[in-house]
């Protein structure tokens, strides 16, 4: 009798176990499918929309990498090659020269090279750049805005939640398809900017 | 009123010819170079290859298979240990702690609640695969695939047992953490699990100071209280525990039949071995208590839900939109504060305060529903753990507690019964130290 | 070398201690380095800033320049070295900890032991009781805590009042009865005809225009609800910069000629505005509108004409596209240099940020937009004018000029004409050249005329240069335009415009010319007033004053009112001979021309708005 009772209890337990296991498997499958309906085959990476960026300087401080994986990028296509460069020189610089007293960049990460009268090329030395956006603000206010910030994917960890995206006041950082990982001005301007505008409308 | 200074300003350099679209961006036209200067192009280093992301999934699968094999078939603690060291090196130090199953909970929650979010397939696989494994083999993920677990496992040097009530109370935190993580992810607020991951800074050699301190503290405590994050914080552990409880197979302490030698009991630093038990106290009283607690279950859920609905206001303050809206309403003078970056950026974004407040109210109402559910969920958790503590199931042998067992395999080493197929060996039982 | 197990354990123990000590030292060093790099951020060095500041006052100081360069190099080196130190320290610490753990594990693994866990006493039944108790305590108190914090926290989102917060209405103004207002207008026109002092050609043009206006008005009323003010209403009030046509002719007849600002004689009221500006007031019925702005904000004020009470203030904030960083403007232009415009139904204001604001007469925002920050090195200062249902905006910037027409009702763009012009600071003038309405704009290098209905260019004459501030004047079929260092020209408009005469004897810098009764009057910034014959440019008379003129001359009730920068108003007969009527003083500096209402004159000083009357 007791054996029978015991085996019955065991059977019942087994039944419950299997039932629960099935339920869990089903709910897991359910959640899986719900999420799977919205999967992207390709991966996504974080990137800054230079047209939304307000040059607040948080990219330098909040990135999980030190120095930040955000660097200034120079879209040469848009550059005016100005002698009086708002991104290179302090706004009230005494001379238009390369001396430290005139340079805006705190780490001297912009190289100024004479091309021909009166044009100069500006190149970013990425090892020195800390992504503080000082030059970006200068170039955007006084120049063509050819200097702008981008997340460099050879440095970026591609965190699950980007620490600078979280603190970006302009919501300029979002996930983009890994197949088009950059929003470099010039290429990015023509279509995408218009698209964003029409969406807003 | 027109007001002009006395000097004629030289307009050279300010003349732009073409006006429409281009003029707004290009103040200074690109020069035409005479010296044949070649314009360089900005470099665009590629992100990590997609293939490599799938390699991560593959590595996870292999690691989980290995551990399952070590835990269930080979019964090798050292095998599990070295696999976990590998996981620590690969998922921890090499992959810098990011892609991780624990954090993927939030991606899945966001994918379900945010129609615009597309979840990367790899993230979904990282969420599902360990859970599926747990359903069949127990928490093998915790044993050796999780870098957070592995780093804590290594520093268990002098573990102490915690009183049962404390374990139960602390074990409540993961549910709270899980609920909050899902709530904040679903409302698109933030990923708190990732943000407060104590070990990711150690994997990266780079984090905020306070996160290093937190990680260091967890490891220090981890010397004495085994794997504190896993047992008392990890939200993914909750899900794994549910799966593991009903898993079809699970690590066993003994390969054959238990000989009641008790050797295994002190081997488990996590207190996850259930000892033989007989019913104590008055049977009738016990049954009555159980019935009372079962009846109280909906009451707990209601109380929790009510408390949750009340707490939605402070909880939603952590959402950046709600915070900004409240800041602007409570301190209207901030609108003109040039030093407040967030307010300044908002003021120039083109959105009106009305729109912002409307958005914030919407988010807050989402939080209302969310925290109601969160509170009810926590109420149910409390109710169920009370029921669990009131039930009694007779047990004759030493068996792993399937919910809390991390499948680390320490107990297997301590079990004197060695060969699975050799059957019961009476001589071994004679070695019982007691 | 054979080591005994015991020796091995001893060595391992020593290694463990050593490695632990090493780790602790590295850890302390790292923390010190970390705190140092946080507290003294060499990249944001205050010292460097101070040095550069010093260099500005002494730009030739080579020693200082060298010091700056050396310091900068040092600071950058320190920054990158500390980064390197932190990273290397991290690796060393990890190494130390690994060695410690390995050796401790080795030591432990060789110790005889029964288990890993330090056990405590257990009693399953009592444990369960205790656990239940604690779960109820902790769970309960968690919920209580949550409820309390929920109750205590304040949901300020619910306290927010939508869009009402934009306008601070101090008092709801009761509109004066429509009938009495109409009466005043009738009286004014009657008086005008009686005294016959209104320039002839305008009188001639009037009936036709009025008829047209009435037609359009009725048409507009039946077709849509777009509000169009009648010319009668416009002339009864003072809706734009320099009057109902923007040409400096006021149609008010009953206006004072005597006052004393310092003594308070004939000063009905005086109001100090919260924010400065150089825009002139505009008047509609018994409301006076004026703008003020500074770096912190841009505001529109509405005063009661009779009492001088500030009725409401409207803020130009939260405008899409408004810049985060204020454009740089000079102190003598400011952010609020453009005068507002009204059609009696709504008021419009524009600021140097490009922010355009439309409000109803009670200060409630109708619409607002940003036209794009004008690239203007002094600050945008062209005033607004309204033609029928269109708000016309002269938008000449360093990036080129535009003439924009927006719907007064919705702010929607009706047309935009790209102008072949450089930057200017002048304002548009509406004139009736006999058979059509024209909008005349002055700029470098043109005087241009546009059809105010379609924005089509009617004609263009190249005769100006430099930084054009003065707007145009019109009389007897001639358009007058002038600018300092350029010329003063009389242009015969038409499809083939021609310059009838020009002179460069006296040229205005800011003040616009005024043409009335066959005389055109010029006021220069160095204090000379000169009158020319409109027909041939003969100099009729000239007057020298010690203070210069920025405010333009305005005609009202047979007299010309011309206020100098010291605030003294020179009132003289609008005639071929100079005949002084009065020279009342405001007692405050001003650059704004007087503004007329029935029986009253409004003048904006630097800080106060004066209402003059009996």
Offer a quick outline of the entry.
Helix content of chain A is 34%, strand content 17%.
Describe the structure.
The complex is a heterotrimer of chains A (201), B (434) and C (614). Chain A is rod-shaped. Chain A is built from 5 helices and 7 strands. Chain A has helices at residues 2-36, 58-62, 134-142, 163-167, 187-200, and strands at residues 39-40, 44-48, 70-74, 110-116, 119-124, 147-151, 173-177. Chain B has 2 domains: 53-275 and 409-419, no CATH class; 283-390, no CATH class. Chain B is built from 20 helices and 3 strands. Chain B has helices spanning 21-25, 50-74, 77-94, 101-113, 121-137, 140-145, 147-154, 164-170, 173-186, 192-195, 200-204, 209-224, 228-232, 235-245, 283-316, 320-330, 341-349, 353-390, 410-414, 426-429, and strands at residues 119-120, 273-274, 399-400. Chain B has a two-stranded antiparallel sheet. In chain B, helix 2 (50-74) runs parallel beside helix 5, helix 4 crosses helix 5 and helix 16 crosses helix 18 (353-390). Chain C is 29% helix and 27% strand. In chain C, helix 1 packs antiparallel against helix 3 (62-109) and helix 2 runs antiparallel to helix 3 (62-109). With 614 residues, chain C is an alpha+beta fold. In chain C, the strands form 8 sheets. Chain C has a 5-stranded antiparallel beta sheet, with no helix packed on it. In chain C, strands 2-33-32-31 form a 4-stranded antiparallel beta sheet, with no helix packed on it. In chain C, strands 7-8-9-10 form a 4-stranded antiparallel beta sheet, with no helix packed on it. In chain C, a hairpin with a 2-residue loop joins strand 19 (473-475) and strand 20 (478-482). Chains in contact: A-B, A-C, B-C. Chains A and B meet through helix 1, strand 1 and strand 5 of A and helix 4, strand 1, helix 5, helix 14 and helix 17 of B.
Q: How far is the first residue's CA from the last residue's CA of chain C?
A: 119 Å
The average pLDDT value of chain A, as a whole number, equals: 84
Number of strands of chain C: 33
Largest sheet properties of chain A? 2 strands, antiparallel
Query: Structural class, from helix and strand content of chain A?
Result: alpha+beta
What fraction of residues of chain A sit in β-strands?
15-25%
Lateral arrangement of strands in the main beta sheet of chain C = 1-6-5-4-3
The number of E-state strands of chain A comes to 7
Task: Give, in order, the helices and strands of chain A.
Answer: HEEHEEEHEHEH
Q: Based on helices, strands and strand pairing, what is the structural class of chain C?
A: alpha+beta
CATH architecture of the largest domain in chain C: 7 Propeller
What name does the CATH topology of the largest domain in chain C carry?
Methylamine Dehydrogenase, Chain H
> Largest chain-chain contact?
B-C, 95 and 101 residues
């Amino acid at each position: 009798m007791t054996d029978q009772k015991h085996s019955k209890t065991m059977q019942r337990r087994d039944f419950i176990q299997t039932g629960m296991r099935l339920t869990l498997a089903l709910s897991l499958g359910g959640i899986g499918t719900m999420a799977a309906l919205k999967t992207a085959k390709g991966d996504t990476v974080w990137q800054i929309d230079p047209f939304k960026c307000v040059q607040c300087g948080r990219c330098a401080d909040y990135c999980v990498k030190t120095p930040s994986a955000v660097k200034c990028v120079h879209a040469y296509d848009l550059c005016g090659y100005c002698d009086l460069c708002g991104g290179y020189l302090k706004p009230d610089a005494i001379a238009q020269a390369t001396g430290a007293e005139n340079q805006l960049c705190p780490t001297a990460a912009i190289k100024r090279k004479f091309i021909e009268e009166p044009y100069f090329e500006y190149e970013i030395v990425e090892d020195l750049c800390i992504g503080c956006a000082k030059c970006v603000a200068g170039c955007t206010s006084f120049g063509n805005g050819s200097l702008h910030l981008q997340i460099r994917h050879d440095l970026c960890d591609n965190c699950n939640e980007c620490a600078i995206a979280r603190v970006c006041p302009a919501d300029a950082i979002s996930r983009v398809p890994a197949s088009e990982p950059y929003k470099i001005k010039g290429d990015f301007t023509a279509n995408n900017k218009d698209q964003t505008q029409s969406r807003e409308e | 009123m027109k007001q002009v200074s006395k000097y004629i300003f030289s307009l050279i350099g300010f003349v732009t010819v073409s006006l429409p679209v281009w003029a707004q961006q290009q103040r200074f036209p690109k020069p035409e170079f005479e010296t044949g200067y070649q314009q360089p192009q900005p470099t665009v280093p590629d992100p990590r290859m997609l293939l490599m992301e799938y390699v991560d999934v593959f590595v996870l699968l292999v690691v989980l298979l290995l551990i399952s094999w070590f835990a269930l078939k080979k019964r090798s603690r050292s095998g599990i240990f070295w696999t976990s060291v590998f996981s620590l090196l690969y998922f921890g130090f090499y992959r810098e702690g990011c892609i991780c199953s624990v954090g993927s909970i939030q991606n899945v929650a966001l994918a379900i609640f945010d129609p615009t979010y597309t979840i990367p397939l790899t993230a979904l696989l990282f969420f599902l695969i360990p859970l599926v494994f747990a359903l069949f083999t127990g928490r093998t993920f915790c044993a050796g695939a999780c870098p957070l677990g592995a780093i804590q496992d290594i520093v268990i040097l002098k573990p102490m047992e915690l009183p049962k009530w404390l374990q139960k109370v602390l074990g409540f935190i993961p549910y709270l953490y899980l609920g909050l993580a899902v709530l904040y992810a679903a409302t698109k607020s933030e990923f708190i699990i990732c943000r407060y991951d104590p070990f990711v800074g150690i994997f990266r050699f780079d984090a905020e100071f306070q996160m290093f301190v937190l990680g260091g503290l967890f490891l220090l405590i981890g010397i004495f209280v085994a794997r504190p994050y896993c047992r008392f914080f990890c939200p993914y552990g909750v899900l794994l525990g549910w799966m593991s409880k009903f898993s079809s197979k699970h690590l066993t302490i003994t390969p054959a039949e238990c000989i009641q030698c008790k050797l295994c009991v002190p081997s488990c630093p996590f207190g996850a071995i259930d000892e033989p038990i007989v019913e104590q106290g008055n049977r009738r009283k016990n049954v009555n208590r159980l019935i009372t607690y079962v009846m109280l279950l909906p009451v707990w859920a209601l109380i929790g839900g009510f408390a949750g609905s009340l707490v939605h206001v402070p909880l939603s303050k952590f959402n950046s939109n709600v915070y900004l809206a409240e800041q602007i309403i409570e301190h209207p003078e901030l609108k003109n504060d040039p030093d407040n970056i967030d307010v300044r950026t908002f003021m120039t974004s083109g959105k009106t305060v009305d729109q912002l407040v409307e958005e914030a109210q919407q988010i807050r109402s989402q939080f209302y529903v969310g925290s109601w559910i969160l509170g009810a969920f926590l109420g149910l958790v409390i109710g169920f753990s009370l029921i669990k503590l009131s039930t009694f199931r007779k047990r004759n042998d030493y068996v792993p507690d399937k919910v809390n067992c991390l499948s680390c395999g320490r107990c297997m080493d301590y079990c004197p019964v060695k060969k699975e197929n050799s059957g019961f060996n009476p001589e071994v039982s004679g070695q019982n130290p007691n | 070398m054979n080591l005994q197990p015991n020796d091995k354990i001893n060595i391992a123990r020593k290694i463990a201690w050593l490695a632990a000590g090493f780790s602790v030292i590295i850890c302390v060093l790292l923390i010190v380095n970390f705190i140092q790099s946080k507290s003294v951020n060499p990249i944001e060095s205050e010292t460097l800033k101070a040095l550069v500041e010093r260099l500005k006052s002494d730009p030739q100081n080579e020693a200082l320049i060298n010091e700056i360069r050396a310091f900068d190099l040092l600071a950058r080196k320190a920054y990158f070295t500390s980064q390197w130190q932190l990273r290397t320290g991290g690796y060393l610490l990890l190494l130390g900890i690994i060695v410690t753990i390995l050796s401790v594990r080795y030591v432990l693994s060789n110790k005889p032991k029964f288990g890993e866990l330090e056990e405590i006493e257990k009693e399953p039944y009592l444990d369960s009781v205790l656990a239940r108790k604690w779960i109820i305590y902790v769970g309960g108190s968690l919920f209580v805590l949550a409820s309390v914090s929920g109750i205590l926290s304040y949901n300020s989102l619910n306290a927010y009042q939508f869009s009402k917060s934009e306008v601070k209405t101090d008092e709801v103004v009761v509109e004066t009865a429509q009938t009495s207002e109409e009466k005043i207008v009738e009286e004014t026109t009657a008086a005008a005809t009686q005294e016959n002092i209104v320039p002839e050609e305008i009188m001639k043009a009037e009936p036709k225009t009025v008829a047209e206006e009435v037609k359009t008005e009725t048409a507009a009323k039946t077709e849509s609800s777009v509000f169009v003010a009648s010319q009668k209403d416009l002339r009864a009030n003072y809706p734009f910069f320099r009057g109902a046509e923007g040409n400096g002719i006021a149609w008010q007849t009953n206006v004072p000629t005597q006052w004393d600002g310092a003594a308070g004689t004939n000063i009905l009221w005086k109001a100090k505005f919260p924010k400065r500006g150089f825009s002139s007031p505009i008047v509609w019925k018994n409301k006076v509108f004026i703008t003020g702005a500074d770096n912190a904000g841009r505001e529109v004020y509405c005063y009661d004409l009779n009492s001088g009470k500030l009725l409401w203030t409207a803020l130009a904030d939260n405008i899409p596209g408004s810049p985060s960083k204020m454009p740089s403007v000079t102190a003598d232009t400011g952010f609020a240099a453009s005068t507002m415009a009204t059609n009696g139904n709504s008021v419009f204001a524009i600021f140097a940020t490009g922010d355009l604001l439309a409000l109803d007469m009670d200060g409630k925002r109708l619409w607002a937009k940003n036209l794009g920050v004008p690239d203007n090195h002094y600050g945008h200062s062209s005033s607004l004018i309204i033609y029928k249902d269109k708000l016309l905006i002269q938008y000449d910037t360093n990036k080129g000029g535009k003439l924009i027409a927006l719907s007064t009702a919705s702010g929607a763009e009706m047309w935009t004409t790209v102008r072949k012009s450089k930057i200017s600071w002048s304002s548009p003038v509406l004139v009736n050249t006999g058979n059509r309405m024209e909008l005349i704009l002055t700029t470098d290098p043109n005087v241009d005329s546009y059809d105010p209905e379609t924005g089509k260019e009617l004609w263009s004459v190249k005769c100006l240069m430099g930084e054009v501030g003065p707007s145009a004047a019109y009389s007897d079929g001639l358009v007058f335009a002038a600018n300092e260092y350029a010329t003063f020209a009389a242009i015969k408009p038409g499809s083939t415009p021609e310059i009838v005469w020009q002179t460069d004897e006296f040229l205005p810098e800011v003040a616009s010319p005024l043409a009335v009764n066959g005389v055109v009057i010029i006021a220069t910034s160095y204090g000379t007033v000169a009158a020319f014959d409109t027909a041939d440019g003969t100099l009729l008379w000239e007057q020298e004053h010690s203070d210069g003129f920025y405010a333009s001359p305005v005609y009202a009730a047979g007299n010309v009112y011309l206020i100098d920068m010291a605030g003294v108003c020179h009132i003289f007969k609008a005639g071929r001979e100079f005949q002084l009527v009065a020279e009342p003083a405001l007692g405050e500096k001003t650059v704004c021309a007087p503004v007329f209402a029935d029986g009253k004159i409004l003048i904006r000083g630097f800080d106060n708005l004066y209402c003059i009357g009996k």
